[in-house]
Amino acid sequence: MRVIKILLVVFFISGGVSIIGAQELLIKGSVTDGDGIPLPDVNILLKETSLGTKTDFDGNYFINAEVGQTLVFSYIGFSTIEVVLGNSTTLNITMRSETSRLDEVVVIGFGETSKVKLTDNVVSAKAEDIKEIPTSNFQTTLVGKTPGVQITQVGGRAEAGVKIRVRGVATITGSQEPLYVLDGIPLINDYEGLGGSPINPLIGLNPDDIESIDILKDASSAAIYGARGTNGVVLITTKKGKLGKTKISLNSSYGWSTPTNRREFLNTAEYVELFTEAGLNVGFTEDDMAGFFNIWADNEEDWRNSSVNTDWQNLALIDGGVQNLGVNISGGNAKTRFFLSTGYNKTNAIVRGNRSERYNLRINLDHNVSDRFAVGINSSISKTQISRLANDNQFATPLQAIAQIPFTRPFSEGGIVPNGNTLYYNFLFQEFNADLNANIWRNNLNLFGEYNVVNDLSFRSEIGYDLNNQTEDRFFGSLTEFASTNGFANALSIQNEKYVLNNYLTYDRTFSKVDFDVVLGMSFEHDNRRLQNTQGQDFPSDDLQTLASAGEIVGGSTTKDSFNFLSYFLRANTAIANKYLFKASVRIDGSSRFGNENRYGTFPAFSGGWVISNEEFLFEDKTLSNLKLRASWGLTGNAEIGNYASQSLFGAARTYNQNAGLSISVLGDPELSWEKTEQYNFGLDLGFFENRLNLSVDYYVKNTEGLLLNVPVPSTSGVNSVLRNSGDLENKGWEFVLDTKNVLNENFSWSTSFNLSTNKNEVKALPNGADIVSFQNIVREGETVSAYYLVEYAGVDPENGDALFYRNSELPDGNLDKSTTNNFGEASRIVTGNPFPTVLAGMTNNFNIGQFDLGITFQGQWGASIFNGGGQFQSSNADFFDNQTRDQLNRWQEPGDITNVPQARLFGANGTQQSTRYLQKADFIRLRNLSFGYSFPKEITKKFNIQRFRIYLTGLNVLTITDYTNGWDPESRGDFITNNNLNPNLEFYSAPPAKTFTLGFNVDF
């Protein structure tokens, strides 16, 4: 009986539980994304049933369910979530984005595709990859994240230009810059500015407006842009409004900057010791040297007692700061989507007197007029104001102040007026009695309409407009180097505008297991440029700085030029059973820049891929989730040579009696054509463990034919050379990309992206095989473009302190004579270095730990050397009175000394000639970006109607590991003519980049 009673109790209890479990509950809650933004239309299903619901516009839902049942939440682009129900009637869900590497959308020019169907080599960076990096230009946000792409900012100024080289250098005298395309419209990218110090033409673009950047690297992808694809194509896509509740985002940050490096120069005591010794070594007496010193000292105690010890470097390089503020509003419904943003950036550079301010406004609007017809507009306007020292260019920079003698005072008595009694002109006069102010208005507009002719066929028309309006006013007051003219002023005005018309049809259809799409279209571009420069002098007052106050207009000029492009293009893609991929494209480009006989060029491309992992014998493999082979071939061109290079040009001239006349200035070539680049690319994509580990390997060969070079002609023609297609060049290399999701837990995730690329550059052919020598560089068959061509420094003779050089003359057996000489004239120049890196690398690690996030990016370069053009003055063992780097104290002083610094000899030219003494490897590893953030829990932020609130600390150029000591930084470059490869990697008192830390916050409402 006891057993029966127990069984009855168990039965009733279990029956009661069963009855309770069978009761229906009303489950309610909300569904949001990782940023706390409500997600509408999320599918919610009861697992193993047909019952379900969807979230409303605000992300809320209601559903009847039973305890123990499973709710399945699914939404396009997000990870599916399954939740087993308990007794709680409230269930809030946060969905995480899960765009796998293979499902990522890639912009490819006049269309887009997914990585799984991609047969080309395209590298992509999304908004989350470039956000919150404290820099005033978007190009440098890509550093370390784009394999095969070298990105270098020229100098440490706020507005400095940026050099991007895609898969090496494919030209010598043409532009090496890639083609930039913003929302389908090619951009103006011409460097302009007074004094030979160009301003980054794309500085007006706001990085916060960018949704993605896709770089087309191989010819198969870039050939859709034909004559301008050789140097790569950078496709910039701005943010658009998304379906859902209106979202307001605020981003604000403030930071501080310092130079990445400061060099060590002599103090007063060291300077006096070194230069006294240098004078005595060549026959001067101590009294002679005292006489020299007294010329620049206010009084003798300044140098005898070291009572004045000026650090001129600290006057040129200062602490800077960065301020950013941005607000954007986005949202929309099924009919209309919008994105509105405004931004402000203020950058005080680390170079004295240099700063910039930028104001941005963007409106992107998409509207569905009907089910078949959609229209839209992408528009932006920006104003950038730049101030810098009036004489801050590649030949006169504030950093040349380091040459000043340390016992000279920067200011005269009282510390108000700069001291005029210095070895060289005191640059501080520029700060207090001169100005250079630039104003740049940049307007971009793209109006488009798209009509679905039938279900699979659409027609799109785009009208684009790009305006770059730049004015510069430069004034030198009566206390500057223009004192004899009572001041001098320039007024520069440049208007460059481009009109673009794109019309194309897109046919996209799936036939059984075949996906097929084709694009057919045309493009027309018209570019106008007008420049006006006027000069005046003799101003009545330094407070009156416009040319209207000039007593005399001493110069002026106006130029106008224009060019057109007319293009037709066709591209077809086929994917068969998601296994066999084929793509073919052709573009016909016509340009007014080239001769009548070669005005049109044809640029075809082909590529294919085999997704082996989708074959039956691998489809069920649990380890290998992706295996794809890729191959491509294509032709691209380079048309960036100037607008009238194919035509004979005449310029104004004065005859002997001052009558107006004409003289020939350019001898044209009617057969002039594009530089053509043929490129092969072979690739392998591997994915393991459900694509948690992805590896891509690419090998490319890039051959450029018909290099545009100035070929000598008889001077009886009226000119010395003519531009012709003559010469060949080759680039080849490997690229490796490894992406891993190391840990994927709810409270901890860790992902890594590593890339490494190599490049070997070689000149294959030149006109008549003749060398092209330009200063310390040479273009020679069989060598790298613009290889260093220098006398080889051999150190110091330990017996007498003479600088030694290797003779390097050719011996009868073909070897070089490695004996040494102290006579520089007896030494021959040899090819002795590469100005371009042979290896590039980058690695990014992203961590999410609870509410914390951490991002770390390293970059590295190997193989390149830098020639320090200023080293002949600043590291010259006291050859002249310029202050010296501290390593010059290790000079030879007595027989038996072993050192690399020759004996100090004033005016002795002991080893100061152009030689490998001033050439050094510039290998480095840099902690490029560091970002650490904390997002407050949503339970707290929702109390204040805030979807997300995050604070963060970011760092730029945080740490640099390098053996480079010749200059300030291994990435410092003189901003000599930007589009000239004859003298690359030359440092000439070049400012280092800035090390910047910022504190900021993000708020989403």
Automatic annotation (TrEMBL):
<dbReference type="InterPro" id="IPR037066">
    <property type="entry name" value="Plug_dom_sf"/>
</dbReference>
<keyword id="KW-0812">Transmembrane</keyword>
<dbReference type="Pfam" id="PF07715">
    <property type="entry name" value="Plug"/>
</dbReference>
<keyword id="KW-1134">Transmembrane beta strand</keyword>
<protein>
    <submittedName>
        <fullName>TonB-dependent receptor</fullName>
    </submittedName>
</protein>
<keyword id="KW-0998">Cell outer membrane</keyword>
<dbReference type="InterPro" id="IPR023997">
    <property type="entry name" value="TonB-dep_OMP_SusC/RagA_CS"/>
</dbReference>
<dbReference type="InterPro" id="IPR036942">
    <property type="entry name" value="Beta-barrel_TonB_sf"/>
</dbReference>
<keyword id="KW-0472">Membrane</keyword>
<dbReference type="InterPro" id="IPR023996">
    <property type="entry name" value="TonB-dep_OMP_SusC/RagA"/>
</dbReference>
<dbReference type="Pfam" id="PF13715">
    <property type="entry name" value="CarbopepD_reg_2"/>
</dbReference>
<dbReference type="InterPro" id="IPR012910">
    <property type="entry name" value="Plug_dom"/>
</dbReference>
<feature type="domain" description="TonB-dependent receptor plug">
    <location>
        <begin position="117"/>
        <end position="233"/>
    </location>
</feature>
<comment type="similarity">
    <text>Belongs to the TonB-dependent receptor family.</text>
</comment>
<dbReference type="InterPro" id="IPR008969">
    <property type="entry name" value="CarboxyPept-like_regulatory"/>
</dbReference>
<dbReference type="InterPro" id="IPR039426">
    <property type="entry name" value="TonB-dep_rcpt-like"/>
</dbReference>
<keyword id="KW-0675">Receptor</keyword>
<keyword id="KW-0813">Transport</keyword>
